[in-house]
């Protein structure tokens, strides 16, 4: 039995393999580097000195004469490494010894007092001397009197000057002289730099590939006008704006050859059109809607004016809708669009049933760099039933929405937030069956606590001003509960009830969620959460609370969440499973 076990664990090997293993092990043993110790230095000094030390990379089996020569000459590399950081008066004590296994070298170094700038004279002539953008780009890394002389930082500053010249249009900049004079006795240095920037270049006309969109639409993607001072940022902004649109498959911008006589930078934009018509199909399952399917169609470029059309069909056991939108850019396609939207919707839950039609006109406009404002007017027709209340409603709703988001990611967001505020209302004096005013606000925040742990917070608020709730259709009332509300409760199962106990919705809403999750494998995380909220009328609030644990899979199409939640306010109910998908923000 013993012999049999040995045969299984240690199969016989050919002699050639055993011989090869001996040579490999011997080679590994002989390639061990010796120990070279540098004392008295900080981390940056030691890193610089070690990088210039050939002795530090010498192996144990090196010839003794070679080790002794490198040891003898090591002072030169040490002093060179320290001088590069401004230390010109170092002292070195060293020792070298051998034992049976290897040799060992030790250097005890006193760097001494560093050399500091006594004077810094950077003379800039030409238009760059008064150019605010150029000056701001070179100010941060400019050497100052009293700074330690660091030759690496000095070289980096020269590169910063040249890079700033290229980015701000001083293509003829000439670094006429640049030198440092070191007084070792005084431990001081004098810097003299002479720069002639020459004349600043200006933009020429921006020329786009023709035949895709009208030139006035393309010109709306840039603020560059012929005669404007050149900046690389303007070119980058143009590239980002064109690439971020859905019109083009590729964008290439050329700024050569320069007109050195007229000091002009030509701009030629080569565009390749994206596929005009796009179809999409998909499906999935969430607890709120059950199994569902989705079909979409988009025409990215109906005409050369940049008009677009999009339609979507969504179908599930709870919610089915068909929506379409026709949109076109105004003067600036980066910031302002008009849209006409329409849609049919059927929703049937345990609390209500509704069939609705909507026709609306929207104007979306960027406010600064982060906020999007959308003003809209909607005609809404709704045939609805809530408990034993049945009615038909026609509303003309006027509203404004503001939204901003940062840190969005298809997979796992690590830092960011999303804010939304919507104010809307209708008046019976303007063609509606009833009057109301409503505010809806949503916020979500993601904050990382290290590489694997995140904290997520979410809240929704709703306020309605209306005398009689029964006059409002179901789509204007508030309900709580479900995947994106208070987990542990059914979809839209929380809110004021009628005499039969059926949920009829409320005029106000509040829900809050706190969650912490942690990765335990790549693309997999476990989460713990607590949710609270309710839909209510007046000031009668009964916060319903759910707690639970969840599993997250960050799939290629976005996060998929599986939550097991228990309603604390109804302990007789079992745990409820929630399945949802979509980005964190």
Describe what you observe in this structure.
With 585 residues, this protein is an alpha+beta fold. It folds into 4 domains: 16-110, membrane protein fhac (Ubiquitin-like (UB roll), Roll); 116-196, Ubiquitin-like (UB roll), CATH 3.10.20.310; 202-273, Ubiquitin-like (UB roll) (Roll); 277-581, membrane protein fhac: a member of the omp85/tpsb transporter family (Porin), CATH 2.40.160. It is 17% helix and 46% strand. It is built from 8 helices and 25 strands. The chain has helices spanning 2-9, 15-30, 43-51, 64-83, 132-139, 151-168, 215-219, 232-244; strands at 35-39, 91-98, 103-110, 116-125, 174-183, 188-196, 202-208, 248-254, 264-273, 277-286, 290-299, 308-316, 319-329, 336-348, 352-367, 371-386, 389-406, 415-426, 436-448, 453-465, 508-521, 524-536, 544-555, 558-567, 576-581. Strands 10-11-12-13-14-15-16-17-18-19-20-21-22-23-24-25 form a 16-stranded antiparallel sheet, with no helix packed on it. It has a 3-stranded mixed sheet with strand order 1-3-2, covered by helices on one side. Helix 3 (43-51) crosses helix 4 (64-83) and helix 5 (132-139) packs antiparallel against helix 6 (151-168). The longest helix is centred in the first third of the chain and has 20 residues, at 64-83. The two termini are 64 Å apart. 25% of the residues are buried.
């Amino acid at each position: 039995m013993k012999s049999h076990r040995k045969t299984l664990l240690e199969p016989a090997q050919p002699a050639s393999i055993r011989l090869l293993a001996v040579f490999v092990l011997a080679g590994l043993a002989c390639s061990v580097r010796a120990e070279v110790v540098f004392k008295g230095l900080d981390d940056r000094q030691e890193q610089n000195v070690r990088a210039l030390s050939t002795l530090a990379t010498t192996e144990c089996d090196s010839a003794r004469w070679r080790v002794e020569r490198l040891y003898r000459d090591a002072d030169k590399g040490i002093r060179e490494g320290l001088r590069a950081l401004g230390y010109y008066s170092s002292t070195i004590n060293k020792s070298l010894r051998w034992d049976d296994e290897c040799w060992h070298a030790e250097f005890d170094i006193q760097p001494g007092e560093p050399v500091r700038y006594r004077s810094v004279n950077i003379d800039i002539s030409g238009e760059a001397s008064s150019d605010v953008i150029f000056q701001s780009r070179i100010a941060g890394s400019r050497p100052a009197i009293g700074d330690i002389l660091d030759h690496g930082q000095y070289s980096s500053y020269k590169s910063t000057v040249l890079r700033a010249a290229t980015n701000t249009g001083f293509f003829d900049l000439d670094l006429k002289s640049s030198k440092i004079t070191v007084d070792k006795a005084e431990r001081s240095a004098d810097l003299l730099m002479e720069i002639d920037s020459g004349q600043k270049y200006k933009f020429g006309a921006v020329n786009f590939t023709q035949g895709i969109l009208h030139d006035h639409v393309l010109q709306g993607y840039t603020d560059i006008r012929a005669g404007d001072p050149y900046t690389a940022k303007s070119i980058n902004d143009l590239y980002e704006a064109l690439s971020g649109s859905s019109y083009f498959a590729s964008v290439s911008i050329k700024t050569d050859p320069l007109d050195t006589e007229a000091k002009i930078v030509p701009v030629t934009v080569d565009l390749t059109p994206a596929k005009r018509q796009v179809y999409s199909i998909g499906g999935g399952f969430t607890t709120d809607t059950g199994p569902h399917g989705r079909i979409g169609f988009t025409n990215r470029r109906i005409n050369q004016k940049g008009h677009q059309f999009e339609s979507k069909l969504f179908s599930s056991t709870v919610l089915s809708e068909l929506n379409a939108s026709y949109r076109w850019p105004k003067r600036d396609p980066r910031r302002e669009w008009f849209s006409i939207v329409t849609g049919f919707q059927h929703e049937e839950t345990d609390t209500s049933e509704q069939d609705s039609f909507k026709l609306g006109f929207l104007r979306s406009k960027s406010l600064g760099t982060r906020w999007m404002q959308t003003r809209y007017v909607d005609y809404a027709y709704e045939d609805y039933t809530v408990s034993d209340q049945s009615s038909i409603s026609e509303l003309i709703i006027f509203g404004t929405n503001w939204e901003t988001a940062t840190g969005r990611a298809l997979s796992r967001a690590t830092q960011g937030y999303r804010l939304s505020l919507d104010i809307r209302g209708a008046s019976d004096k303007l063609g509606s069956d009833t009057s109301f005013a409503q505010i809806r606000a949503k916020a979500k925040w993601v904050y990382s606590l290290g590489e694997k742990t995140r904290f997520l917070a979410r809240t929704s608020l709703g306020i309605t001003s209306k005398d009689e709730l029964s006059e409002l259709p179901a789509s204007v009332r508030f309900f709580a509960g479900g995947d994106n509300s208070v987990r542990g409760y059914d979809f839209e199962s929380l809110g004021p009830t009628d005499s039969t106990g059926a949920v009829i919705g409320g005029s106000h809403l509040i829900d809050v969620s706190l969650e912490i999750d942690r990765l335990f494998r790549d693309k997999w995380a476990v989460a713990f959460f607590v949710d609270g909220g309710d839909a209510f009328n007046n000031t009668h609030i009964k916060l319903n609370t759910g707690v639970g644990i969840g599993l997250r899979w960050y799939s290629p199409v976005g996060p998929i969440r599986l939550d097991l939640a228990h309603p604390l306010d109804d302990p007789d109910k079992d745990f409820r499973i929630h399945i949802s998908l979509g980005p964190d923000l």
